[in-house]
Amino acid sequence: MSRNLLQGLVGAWCPSLGPSGYTLLDRSGRGNHGTLTNMDAGSDWVGMPGGWALDFDGTNDSVAITTRAISISTNFTLYGWAYRTAGTSNRNIIGIGSGATGFWTLYWQSASGRYAAEGWDLTNNVTITETTNAGLNVWTQVVMSASAGLFRIYTDGILRASATNTHSQTAQTVITIGNLSGYSSWFQGDLDDLACWNRGITAGEVWQLYQLGRGGLGRLLTQRAQRRVFRTAQGNRRRRLICGAEC
């Protein structure tokens, strides 16, 4: 596992770790928690093999997150695992910004029947579409990573398409899960392991996350939070231990 994988992580929202009521906890430690909107604190948390997930009804369900300013014109990553159960229109997984301020978004595109990534800076629009069709009722890892003047879309650990990133957008403070702020492109199905980095993660890191599987990011962050460094009584040496919540 890359030692730098968690570098630049702005927020990580991991329903697989279990229900947390009307708040979707940010497991990155940065306190960028989300608020469930038009969702039920009980029934919309769905237990299933591989851990819990959040269920979105495709009508008005979303999670709103306000963060410190994020630059989305150069280097960033949007990440998530999606399980689409229905819906024939565009379905947003996770997006930064809004129709009023410019945005980047990761979504299922109805025109192609595939997952896509799109950016708009109030003047120009650019869209890339992955090359496979995951269909319904299948968990799919979907990633948009922007760096070095390009933005790229991956599904299930594999680079599918890329395009030149020429957008010039101001910093944004709004992340929306299950929709894009200012639009009505509600996701229908289940979502897990949503995340945002303020850098473009590498192809190798995308593959590592895919190998961890759905819920893997949450497990990785939980293990990291449980890791403690203790000084031994002899020689004042350091020893690294993994401990449970009771430590």
Task: Offer a few descriptive terms.
single chain; 247 residues; mainly beta; 8-stranded antiparallel sheet; 2 helices; 9% helix; globular
Question: What features would you describe in this structure?
Answer:
- The protein is mostly beta strands.
- It has helices at residues 203-212, 216-226; strands at residues 9-13, 23-24, 34-37, 45-46, 53-57, 62-70, 76-84, 91-98, 102-109, 114-120, 125-129, 139-147, 150-155, 158-164, 172-177, 188-197, 227-231, 238-242.
- Strands 1, 4, 5, 7, 12, 13, 14 and 16 form an eight-stranded antiparallel beta sheet that branches.
- β9 (102-109) and β10 form a beta hairpin.
- The model is unreliable at 228-247 (pLDDT under 50).
Shape annotation: globular
Count of strand segments: 18
What multimeric state do the chains show?
single chain
Structural Rg: 18 Å
Q: What's a concise summary of this model?
A:
The chain has 247 residues and is mainly beta. It is built from two helices and 18 strands.
